Amino acid sequence: MATILIVNGPNLNLLGVREPHIYGTETLESISNNCKELAKTLGHEIEFFQSNAEAEIIERLHQHFSTPVDYIIINPAAFTHSSVAIRDAISATNVPFIEVHLSNVHQREPFRQHSYFSDLATGVICGLGSQGYLFAIRYIDQALKQN
């Protein structure tokens, strides 16, 4: 059994009401429930975390040193394009991670097309809505079985 930490950045708490034409109508709570259900079926545990504050995300990543996790899925949201501090924190954990975005950032404004995380990530999933989280969990399950 593996522990997978899913970290969500700013404004994702507004999913379901914020720009549904871009982010869909599913709530973050629903995404969390679906991730936990899939992980349980596969024999893993999910810890789901969301914060609008950069410092809180960094602190949660630092908790890995006292409470280790096996894999991380991160949707840094707007911090994708601006947070060297979160990049440094996730890099310091030395835990493999998958970067997930609900929208296809490559079809959006030019500033959204740069990520401070992609070059460190095992993989990047974008544009597939909430299914991206589930695809990441399935990938992690397979990757852990191979090790």
UniProtKB/TrEMBL annotation:
The protein's name in its UniProt record: 3-dehydroquinate dehydratase
EC number: 4.2.1.10
GO BP of this protein: amino acid biosynthetic process; aromatic amino acid family biosynthetic process; chorismate biosynthetic process; quinate catabolic process
Keywords attached to this entry: Amino-acid biosynthesis, Aromatic amino acid biosynthesis, Lyase
Organism (species): Gynuella sunshinyii YC6258
Catalytic reaction equation(s): 3-dehydroquinate = 3-dehydroshikimate + H2O
Transmembrane residue ranges: none
Function: Catalyzes a trans-dehydration via an enolate intermediate.
InterPro entries, sorted: DHquinase_II, DHquinase_II_CS, DHquinase_II_sf
Origin organism lineage: Bacteria, Pseudomonadati, Pseudomonadota, Gammaproteobacteria, Oceanospirillales
Domain of life: Bacteria
Quaternary structure, from the entry: Homododecamer.
Record-annotated active site: Y23, H101
Keyword Chaperone: no
One example GO MF annotation: 3-dehydroquinate dehydratase activity
Site (Transition state stabilizer): R18
Pathway in which the depicted protein is active: Metabolic intermediate biosynthesis; chorismate biosynthesis; chorismate from D-erythrose 4-phosphate and phosphoenolpyruvate: step 3/7
Family: Belongs to the type-II 3-dehydroquinase family.
Residue numbers binding substrate: N75, H81, D88, L102, S103, R112
SUPFAM superfamilies: Type II 3-dehydroquinate dehydratase
